[in-house]
Amino acid sequence: MKLTILSLLLFLNFNFIVAQTAEEYNLQSIEKANEGKYSAALKDIDKALEIDSLNIEYLISKAYLHYDLKEFQESYNVFSHVIFLDGNSVSYNGRGMVMETVGEMEMAIEDYSMAIDNAENDTIRASALSNRAASYSKIRNFNLAYEDLIKAYSIDSTSLSVLTNLGAICDEIGKGDETLKYLLKALEVDPDFYPAYGNIGYKYQEMGQHEMAIKYYDKVLEFNPEEPLGYSNRSFNYYKLGDFKQAMKDIDKSLKLYPSNSYAYRVKALILLKDGKTEKACENLQIAIEYGFTERFGNEVLSLQREFCK
Q1: C-beta atoms surrounding 288 within 10 Å
Q2: Could you give the count of Cα atoms lying within 13 Å of 33 in the half-sphere of its Cβ?
C-alpha cells in the first residue's frame, strides 16, 4: 500500500512540475511569431488565455496574430473586445491598422485619432500619428498627412517610417525641397533601410534624373530582389531613357510578383504604346483603372484612354 501511495504522489508531483504557466505559453507564442509561425503562435496564446482570459497583453497579441494570418475580422473582433475591456490606445491603434488594411479609411482614421488622444506615452502617440498620416495619404489628403508626420517627427526624429513617409509626402504638398533631407536622414539612421533608397530613386525620377533614379532602384533590388515596386519604378526610368526592352523585362517581373499593382499596368501600357501595340496598351490601361490607379494616382490613365483607346 505504501508503495502505491508513493507512486501516486510522485506522478501527481510530476504533472504539477511540467504544467506550463500562462506567461510561459505567451513567451512561446512570441518566439514562434518571431519565426513567422503565426498559426502555432496563435495556439500558444490561446492556451495562455485559457489560464488568464482577461490578460490585455495576451489579447492584444492574439489580435495581432490574427492580423498576421490575414484573418482581419477575427483581429477586428479581438481588438474591439480589448477596447471594451480596457480602452487602451494600443488597441485603437491596432484596430485602425485592420480598418486601413481592408480599405475602411474613415474608420481607420477614427481609431487612430482615439489612439492619439488617449496615448499612454509618446511612442504610441507617434505610431498612431504616423499610421493616421498613412490613411490620410491613401485618401489623398496630403496636407493632413504632412501635419501628422511633422507632429510624429517632433516626438521621434529618428523614426524610419516617419522620415520615409515625410519624404514621400513633401512632393505632394509643394515642399519638394524638403524631400531629400528626410530621406537622406533615414539612411543616416539605418544605411540598410532599403525603402528609403526607393523613395530617393522616386525623387530623382520626378526630377527627370533617370539614370540616378535607376542607381537607387538597383540598390533597392540589391537588398530585396523580390521587391515588385523596385522593378516597376526602375522600369519606368528605363522607359524614359528609351530602353524599352529592359523596361518591359522589369515590368513583367514586377507584375509576376505583384499582379494587382495598378501603377505597373500603367507603365506597361506606356511601353506598349511606344511599341505600337495600342490594343494591348489599352487593355493594360483598363486593368490599371480596375485595380484603383485613379483613386491612388490621379487621372493620367483616363487621359491616356481618351487619347489612344477610342
Answers
A1: 26
A2: 20
pLDDT at res. 240? 97
> Mind giving me the DSSP string for the chain?
-HHHHHHHHHHHHHHHHHPPPHHHHHHHHHHHHHTT-HHHHHHHHHHHHHH-TT-HHHHHHHHHHHHHTT-HHHHHHHHHHHHHHT--HHHHHHHHHHHHHTT-HHHHHHHHHHHHHT-SSHHHHHHHHHHHHHHHHHTT-HHHHHHHHHHHHHH-TT-HHHHHHHHHHHGGGT-GGGHHHHHHHHHHH-TT-HHHHHHHHHHHHHTT-HHHHHHHHHHHHHH-TT-HHHHHHHHHHHHHTT-HHHHHHHHHHHHHH-TT-HHHHHHHHHHHHHTT-HHHHHHHHHHHHHTTHHHHH-SHHHHHHHHH--
Average pLDDT, the chain: 91
Is the pTM higher than 0.85? The answer reads: no
CB 179 within 8 A of CB 167: yes
Below-50 pLDDT ranges, the chain? 1-17
Side chain identity at residue 68, one-letter code: D
Q: Do domains 157-225 and 240-310 have the same CATH topology?
A: yes
Q: 518566439: which residue's cell?
A: 31
- Dihedral, CA of residue 246, residue 250, residue 256 and residue 261, to nearest 10: -130
Specify the fold of 240-310: 1.25.40
| Domain chopping of the chain, boundaries | 157-225, 240-310
Residue 34 neighbours by CB under 8 Å, 6+ apart: none
Match 475580422 to its residue by C-alpha cell.
73
Domain 157-225, what architecture?
Alpha Horseshoe (1.25)
Phi, psi for residue 126 in degrees, rounded to 5: -65, -40
